[in-house]
Automatic annotation (TrEMBL), chain B:
Residue intervals passing through the bilayer: none
InterPro entries to which the protein is assigned, alphabetical: ArsA/GET3_ATPase-like, ATPase_ArsA/GET3, P-loop_NTPase
Protein's recorded name: ATPase
Domain ArsA/GET3 Anion-transporting ATPase-like: 5-180
Domain of life: Bacteria
Pfam families assigned: ArsA_ATPase
Molecular function via GO: ATP binding; ATP hydrolysis activity
Amino acid sequence: MSGPDTDENRGADENRGARESHGSDESGDGGRGLEACPGLEVDPLIDDPGTRIIVCCGAGGVGKTTTAAALGVRAAERGRKVVVLTIDPARRLAQSMGIDSLDNTPRRVRGINGGGELHAMMLDMKRTFDEIVEAHADPERARAILENPFYQSLSAGFAGTQEYMAMEKLGQLRARDEWDLIVVDTPPSRSALDFLDAPKRLGSFLDGKFIKLLMAPAKMGGRAGMKFLNVGMSMMTGTLGKLLGGQLLRDVQTFVAAMDTMFGGFRTRADATYRLLQAPGTAFLVVAAPERDALREAAYFVERLAAEEMPLAGLVLNRVHGSGAARLSAERALAAAENLEESRIVDQEAGKTAGRGSWAPSPEPEPPATDSAQPQPALTDSPQSGRTEASPTQVSADLSAPSSARSSVEPAAEPTVEELTAGLLRLHAERMQVLVREQRTRDRFTALHPEVAVAEVAALPGDVHDLAGLRAIGDRLATGGSSPAGAA
Amino acid sequence: MSRLQVVSGKGGTGKTTVAAALALALATEGKRTLLVEVEGRQGIAQLFETEALPYEERKIAVAPGGGEVYALAIDAERALLDYLQMFYKLGGAGRALKKLGAIDFATTIAPGVRDVLLTGKACEAVRRREKQGGYTYDYVVMDAPPTGRITRFLNVNDEVAGLARIGPIHNQAQAVMRVLKSPETAVHLVTLLEEMPVQETADGIAELQEAELPVGQVIVNMVRPHLLDEAAVGAADGDHRDDIAKALAATGVPGATELVSPLLEQAAEHAQRVELEREQRGVLEKLKVPTYELPYLGEGADIAGLYRLAKELRKLGVGA
């Protein structure tokens, strides 16, 4: 599921109920150890005027940006003046905030209820970089930098620019002091840690000998200056020239020389933003889905934040599945489904010829029409498999010929009550398998990090299209940590 | 089939799993494939439940019929040092460059160099031959960066070739680009039948085509069977709650009456999902790109699941 839909309230209560009943029923395996896990209370966090920055981080595809937007909407509707800095939002998400295309300037989001305000923006890294150059260099030098081919590639997005620029932008927004809460989404990095590493990497580059080497010839008046360098160094520049091509090396050198005076400022600001992230006004939310890879990344992030002394508020677990019938296990549901299907097959073999679609109130199985065995692969194929997922042939049959696969449930060929009930049971078994797997994955995380507060957001079938959808997620976020059992 | 299979996809769609299954499928019947990882996440090692992969090609799985899957986690820094050694015999200078921070600069700060090195290494493996003249690997499968960055990642060589207009990096970048833009390469995008991944897939395909990179297949992952549709759910939810309760009770399930409502709610959600999936399938059809569908693995993507997906891919015609 990529995110919640607009169908607000159907799920929230039902799923909380599911969690509770599931927790009590599954106490033998899944329910244990979760009591120890504290709930993440989102409302106190966003209501606290002391909370000035919330950073949402986590692996790609877990709903980070959606979480950031939902938090922004909720905080604004609870009276705060909020800006959401997104990095690379899906078009739909930008539209859900009523803004067709977000850009590098915060835009007010219309339709927010209550006394607060919501502004949203999307990081444009090239624009942000250009603005820094324009703000910190005299016009002539700024033009030289902006026209440098090396700069143009660098600013358009080498691995890491996004991280530096997100940090810069965050620092800028904080410095403007126009908002009392900034919600930041982190870049979809190769590694989730790049965001934190950006300032240090910049620092080590700027402090390194390499940059001095690059700057040396320019400072000393081009190639003539080379003779003042020791032999080793000139050999090195020679190697670089050979490797990069002389012209690229010159571009780099010109760029570095032009940027020279600006580097210090870069560094100071990156360091300041880094310290800002460690300060008490900042809260990190690690976002994950109850899947192995996402939670592994989440655990890694939790550890890294602790090592960097960054304040972690908790884990937001998106797309958690629940069931109102959790006391019926997958195994029992499947056995019951098979039971129903077998009795039907037996009747069919006995040659009964009752009409299809007759809804006799009797609990006795109703046989389907005599020619019905073929068009019902989805319901009849897998009684022996004991699993809910389709066998490979079944899936391809189902998908390549959807009309025939579905004919068993088309109005024209109304299924018998046994077929329907068996279908309901199979669906339930599938849901329970997902539930148990999610529980197991989550338990593993909780065992490693029992101290991390968790808020769960129930899975929804569609995507977010509007503010109502974001509100619905906000509701789930706010209630997702209050269930003490907390189990999916 | 193209010898370089690049697998991309939105985060969370299972692209690493699909790449691994594809490597297994292509290795079937005595072939040898190399599965490469470029993002330093050690996703392959985790999938195959082995220790972290070193910067070394190492056999990690045997395919049905005696094929072999090798794996390599490409590390940009090591690739650069290798490259310096291979072409310039600069082993010692490499160390000195590293001490100066030049290697760091080249692999993290300098635009594109990192990506050139990563794609370069993969292309080298594609072209490598044994002494007898045959290719070392029949296929190379790359677990590539996600859809949002794939075009830039693959196309960076063009940019670098423009930036470094002469010299070995320029030549290297151009050589890599020749492989990537040829029919030797196919770029696959993994998606789910959900709105955001499908939209990203559509955007990704447009970008790849714009950059003249060869689009392979759209691979729809985690497809779940449609057990009931709206019509059935509507029928069930009508006057037949009692009948369903009785049918449930007849199977010996306790508390049958209380189960009816939650089961029907789940069915309604299922029907809603079926409908959404139908819409998304329609969007994918409009892309006019061949599509594979892989089933959802209820037990999660473990090794057994990988072999199952590989078998599925074979059935769909991979490696045939």
